[in-house]
Write a structure and sequence with these properties.
The chain has 401 residues and is an alpha+beta fold. 57% of the residues lie in helices and 13% in strands. It folds into two domains: 189 residues, no CATH class; 178 residues, no CATH class. Strands 5-6-4-7-3-2-8-1-9 form a nine-stranded mixed β-sheet, with helices on both faces. It is a multi-pass membrane protein.
Length: 401
C-alpha cells in the first residue's frame, strides 16, 4: 500500500535530525515569548495602577504636616503604617484660606500588632459627616455609615465580616472587607472618627505614643472652589501656613508625578520589547539563512525528485512554524508561572502600585504571546524560504560537491 507523503512529517524529521540547531532556534522563540508575556502583563498592571490612583485621589488638595509628604505617599501607595498630627487648629485655618470650598479630616494611626496580623498595619479614621472622598468607595462594601466600634478591613487584612479584631486592647467588629485596589488601602483598616480617637487614647494609655490634643488630625482633604487651579491654591496654603508646620500638595500634582514615573518605566519596557522583537527576527533570519546554505544538497535532491518550488518553501516554513509553536507555548507557560510567583514579591518590594491582573488579562496576553511567537519564526524564515525556491537544483548540487 502506498504511503501518503506528508510535508509536516518531513519538517518534523528535519527538526529531529539536527537537535542542537533546533534547540537553539526553539530557545530564541522561548525567551522571546517569555519576555513578551511578562513585559505585557507588567505594562498592563502599571496602566491599571495609574488609573486606580487617579480614581481614589478625589480630593483636589492634601494638607499634611511639613516634612511628612513621603509618609503620606507611603501610606497611600504601599500601606506602610505611619502616625503623625497636624496642629489642633488646622481645620479652622484652612476654612479661612481663599479658594477652599470644603474640607474633611482623616486620622492616621499605626499599630504595632493586631490580633489579625503578625505585622503593623495602618488605621485611617474618617469623618463620615464631612467626607466627600472615601465614603463613596467604602459604601460599595457597607451601604450605611460605620458605627462606633466597627471597621472596614482592606483586602489583605485577615478576617471576615462579623468577626472581631483587636487594636491597643480594644475589640472591634469587622463590618466588611473591601475589594482589592493594588494600593496601600489593601493593608489598611478604616474606622469612623469617634473610633479612631478612642484608639488614639488607648494607644496613649499603653505608652505606644505620646498624648495629643483630641482635636488633632493627620491629614485634611480639601476641595477647591469651581474654576480655581488646585496647584495655585495649594501653593498659597503652604505659603500662608508654613510657619504653623502645615504643607499643602495638589493631588493632581502628586498623581501626575507618580504617573510620569510609571509611564517612563512602561515606555522603557515597551522599547525593550520592540527591540527584542527586532533582535529575534534578525537572529532567526540569520539562523535560517545559514541552515538553508547547509542543506543545499538535501533541498536540491527534493527538487530533482519532483518537489516544486512552492513545496520547498512550505517545508522551510513548516519547520519554522513547528519550532515557533513549541517555543512560544512553553515560553508563555513559563512566563505565566514566573509572573504569578514573582508578582507578590515585586508589589512588596517596589514603591509603586501594581494591581494583580485579572484572569481575563492573563488569558488574553497569553494567547497574544502564543500567536505572536508562532508568527515570528515563519516571518524570519521567509527570506530563506524565498531564496531556496529560486535556486536551480542542479547548480546547488554542484556547489556542494
Amino acid at each position: 500500500m502506498r504511503t501518503k507523503f506528508s510535508f509536516r512529517k518531513l519538517a518534523k524529521a528535519n527538526i529531529q535530525s539536527k537537535p542542537l540547531r533546533s534547540f537553539f532556534l526553539l530557545l530564541v522563540v522561548f525567551l522571546f515569548s517569555l519576555a513578551i508575556l511578562s513585559g505585557s502583563l507588567f505594562i498592563s498592571a502599571l496602566s491599571d495602577g495609574i488609573m486606580r490612583i487617579s480614581n481614589k485621589m478625589g480630593a483636589d488638595i492634601m494638607v499634611v504636616p511639613s516634612g511628612y509628604k513621603s509618609n503620606v505617599e507611603d501610606v497611600l501607595l504601599k500601606g506602610e503604617p505611619s502616625t503623625f498630627y497636624l496642629p489642633a487648629d488646622t481645620l479652622d485655618l484652612l476654612e479661612e484660606q481663599p479658594g477652599v470650598k470644603q474640607v474633611t479630616p482623616q486620622l492616621y494611626i499605626a499599630t504595632l500588632s493586631a490580633s489579625c496580623c503578625s505585622y503593623p498595619l495602618q488605621i485611617i479614621g474618617i469623618d463620615t459627616k464631612t467626607d466627600f472622598l472615601v465614603q463613596a468607595w467604602l459604601k460599595q462594601t457597607l451601604p450605611r455609615d460605620m458605627a462606633d466600634g466597627e471597621v472596614l478591613a482592606g483586602h489583605n487584612i485577615i478576617g471576615e465580616a462579623g468577626e472581631k479584631i483587636r487594636f491597643f486592647g480594644k475589640e472591634l467588629k469587622i463590618a466588611g472587607r473591601l475589594s482589592k485596589t493594588g494600593m496601600g488601602f489593601d493593608g489598611t483598616v478604616f474606622v469612623n472618627m469617634n473610633t479612631a480617637k478612642m484608639l488614639v487614647k488607648a494607644s496613649e494609655r499603653k505608652g505606644v505614643q505620646k498624648a495629643v490634643d483630641n482635636s488633632q488630625v493627620s491629614v485634611v482633604m480639601v476641595k477647591v472652589k469651581s474654576g480655581l487651579d488646585p496647584i495655585k491654591v495649594a501653593g498659597n496654603i503652604s505659603k500662608n501656613l508654613s510657619n504653623r508646620g502645615i504643607f499643602a500638595m495638589a493631588s493632581k500634582s502628586f498623581v501626575n508625578d507618580l504617573a510620569d514615573k510609571l509611564y517612563m518605566l512602561a515606555g522603557l519596557i515597551k522599547f525593550s520589547l520592540v527591540l527584542l522583537w527586532v533582535m529575534a527576527l534578525i537572529i532567526l533570519a540569520m539562523s535560517y539563512t545559514t541552515m538553508i546554505n547547509e542543506r543545499k544538497r538535501e533541498l536540491s535532491a527534493l527538487r530533482i525528485l519532483g518537489a516544486t518550488r512552492k513545496q520547498l518553501r512550505k517545508i522551510v516554513l513548516l519547520e519554522a512554524w513547528q519550532l515557533s509553536s513549541v517555543g512560544s507555548i512553553t515560553g508563555a507557560l513559563v512566563g505565566l508561572l514566573l509572573t504569578l510567583i514573582s508578582y507578590p514579591l515585586l508589589v512588596n518590594k517596589w514603591s509603586i502600585p501594581l494591581p494583580n491582573p485579572s484572569w481575563q488579562v492573563y488569558v488574553f496576553y497569553s494567547l497574544v504571546t502564543v500567536i505572536v511567537g508562532m508568527l515570528v519564526g515563519p516571518l524570519a524564515s521567509l527570506p530563506a524560504a524565498w531564496k531556496v525556491s529560486k535556486r536551480d537544483a542542479y547548480t546547488s548540487m554542484r556547489e556542494t560537491d
